[in-house]
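Justification of computing resources. Each target in the renewal requires a structure prediction run like the one illustrated here; the chain below, 387 residues long, is used simply to show the kind of job we budget for.
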Amino acid sequence: MTDYTLDRPVYMDYNATTPVDPQVLETMMPFLTDQFGNPSSGYSLGRQAHEAIDRARGEVAGLIHCRPDEIVFTSGGSESNNMVLKGIVDMTNPRKCHIITSAIEHPAILNPVLYLMELGVEATVLPVDGLGRVDPDDVREAVSPRTVLITVMLANNETGTIQPIREISDVAHEHGIPLHTDAAQAVGKIPVDVGDLGVDFLTVAGHKLYAPKGVGALYIRDGRFLTPLIHGAGQEGGRRAGTENVALAAGMGAACRIASQRLETDAERIRTLRDSLQGLLFDGIEGLVLNGRPDCRLPNTLNISVPGIEGGRILEAIPGLMASTGAACHDRTVKLSHVLAAMHVPAEIGMGALRLTLGRGTTMEQVETASRLLIRQVRRMRYAQAG
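Resulting structure tokens:
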């Protein structure tokens, strides 16, 4: 198999992680050097650190349109999700609790749900349609007197499909049930307003929006209470113990401020590039399949399948193209993505999935290069199969 190498690799995996924005790094540096104080200390170094966290909290709140005191800094999206799922359940009597979620959630939701089920919590995992969308009527039918939480992601990390969270929130609040949404993939890519969505809890992951890895945030609507995941001193309003990581919080805040400033222009430019990439690939590869919704999806996300050829084999032959597939490798065996499986995508199609996700660093030159390499490799592999 011939490798197609590039002088400059093309990165198209922005849903996996993003590079740290230079302005974010610049904001963080003082708190990794001279301004090293503990935010709980009363002297000047401590006050500087405390003020930096307050400022960052306000910047995160500004991006999702909530009050600063409704933001809790965490170590990332996984911790935020675990805080909600484990904090909402009555651990003294978990068998009285019921949770509703969907089959396409990130493992940071599904695995905590499985853990809670082992403790006796009942869970309903809702199906999705062929485009990866949850039906709000299915949510309504799943509600029981013991339901303590509904959690449905805002946008799917694989297909980009955006969920009807506003309609789901109407169902939740009709029954007085709190609603959580994992918005890790959505925040920074599309407008997110917690008031418009009607959510009680919302997860943000820093490294999905050009902040460092290891930092995230959780929105907790005023009046809602969660049992802390981490007990200790009274940091973060008593909701998450531990001395705050000032540098990471500052970086998270800066990333949210930058996203607020350039959200509209970034989305428009990246959507144009994504659509160009999609057009080039569909023109050049016969029988290509689009996975997910063609319209209501993240502006940067393209999930396509090449029927009959494993996506992983295609990417292995193009080492200069950094992207993801629709399959997961476990114990040296390749399995269909749980998201595509939930959408009832046939294995022959789903195993050929490629997730191409664009970002601020993507250029038209990269789009043209990626499409050219993918088209050439797929044609070559099809020719070999036919031979």
